[in-house]
Amino acid sequence: MSDLSFLWQHCLNELEQRLGASQFNIWIKPLVAELVDGTLQVNVPNQIFLQFIRDRHLGMIEMVAAEYCNGEPPMINLRVGAKPVAPPPPAPPKPKARPAASDAPAAEADPQPQPAASAEKKPARRFEAGSSSHEISRLNPLFTFETLVTGKANQVARAAAQQVAENPGAGYNPLFVYGGVGLGKTHLVQAIGNLVHQYNPQARIRYIHAEKYVQDVVKAYQHKSFDEFKKYYHSLDLLLVDDIQFFVGKDRTQEEFFYLFNALVEGGKQIILTSDRIPREIEGLQERLTSRFSWGLSVAIEPPETEMRVAILMKKAEADHFKLDSNVAFFIAKNIRSNVRELEGALKRVLAYARFTHQPITLEAAKEALKDILAAGNRLVSVENIQKTVADFYKIKVPDMHSKKRARDIARPRQVAMALTKELTQMSLPAIGEAFGGRDHTTVLYACRTIEEMRQNDSELAHQYGVLLQMLRS
Ligand SMILES: Nc1ncnc2c1ncn2[C@@H]1O[C@H](COP(=O)(O)OP(=O)(O)OP(=O)(O)O)[C@@H](O)[C@H]1O
């Protein structure tokens, strides 16, 4: 192995050349590295840096370190440095004029790092970022419109989000974003927060997970500090609450949120909410909240189709400085269908496998890296599983899947189950007909076409189908 004392200097020289001066100065220069027992310990100034470096630059750091060490790189350990290392990155330049809602293909944009929301810069208060769980109150600088891949699954939601970011408080209020797990709701709403902050660094923005809001209510209750609680929340310009379904069964929280909602909307302040389902399907939410949540605009995010999954993989790999062949991307996208988070996880696995075995990212490497996940996935989807899942979802009985009953509340779920079986299994149409009470293959074909058509025209059915797909694939 080469002399490690020069390793970091070599990395710095190479990274400066490969990343360019501006990225280098913002993200790499503030890092301080030292060798500890053969491990390259890289100290970063804060959590945001840590995440950004890990997600965006670690691959390249490892690569240049490996080059210096003739393919035998030391372990690299990132951590938030105990010692002050360097000033935080400068704020990105303010846009000269507001860009119009961007139609540019996301892949062409160069995501610029952005600092966390303005709330973070203010002195810590009991209900602000200084609390023990301040992590979740921060906006992730990587969740921007530029890093969000757009496709049929999210184009309406994205357009609405962009409009809200351009004119907060003036249009859709609240904006309610719903969809299954890991489909990009948090990414989208934080992109709004980041853009609002970029336009107006003075805006008081708070992103919060619903569970954290519940905790804040409990804290206010315990400390008898509701005045302070209200003062803080009611002073916000933009409030983003993630996973609002966590309010179910929390009456005091719902009451507080009702007053907060009214105060903010009346004051022309913007509210953005996310949930795994539309407001009226959230059982256990007070009616006055359900109706208010539907005041503005509710937009769905559906599971992405194959091409969009491929585009997401390509973009994520590129951000990690890897070039992904399209056959590898298609392989991953075709096999990991449950949600984008899983897709990202699979990509990370493939990249790590290639990195640690010093192999190029070939189809064979991808198959090897994902073999456990794929084996687990293949075992799960059976027609019986589909029939049970769909029957439970629509609250009908499994035998109704086989029966001749034609009532719509039974026939429609049965058609949905047939379409899902066609999509998720290798079964032929006659075999599917057989599994659904000995029906003819033309009945199955008709069911598949009907559901396909309805998914185009009936957003509720499209959403239900998406949720079922996710449930069955995860
Ligand atoms: N269209 C997309 N383009 C790029 N990345 C995406 C897209 N959709 C989702 N992701 C990525 O997938 C991951 C999961 O997304 P996110 O956390 O926003 O999902 P979510 O819907 O909020 O999930 P949950 O329901 O668990 O809260 C994130 O890393 C996000 O960046």
UniProtKB/TrEMBL annotation:
Region Domain I, interacts with DnaA modulators, annotated ranges: 1-107
A Gene Ontology molecular function term of the record: ATP binding
Domain III, AAA+ region: region residues: 138-354
Pro residues: bias regions: 85-94
Keywords: ATP-binding, Cytoplasm, DNA replication, DNA-binding, Lipid-binding, Nucleotide-binding
An annotated GO BP: DNA replication initiation
UniProt xrefs under CDD domains: AAA (cd00009), Bac_DnaA_C (cd06571)
Domain of life: Bacteria
Region: Disordered, residue numbers: 80-133
The UniProt record lists the keyword Metal-binding: no
Subcellular location: Cytoplasm
SMART domains the record matches: AAA (SM00382), Bac_DnaA_C (SM00760)
Domain Chromosomal replication initiator DnaA C-terminal per the UniProt entry, residue ranges: 382-451
Record carries keyword Methyltransferase: no
Skewed-composition ranges (Basic and acidic residues): 119-128
NCBIfam families found in the cross-reference section: DnaA
Subunit description: Oligomerizes as a right-handed, spiral filament on DNA at oriC.
Name of the protein in question: Chromosomal replication initiator protein DnaA
Gene name in the database record: dnaA
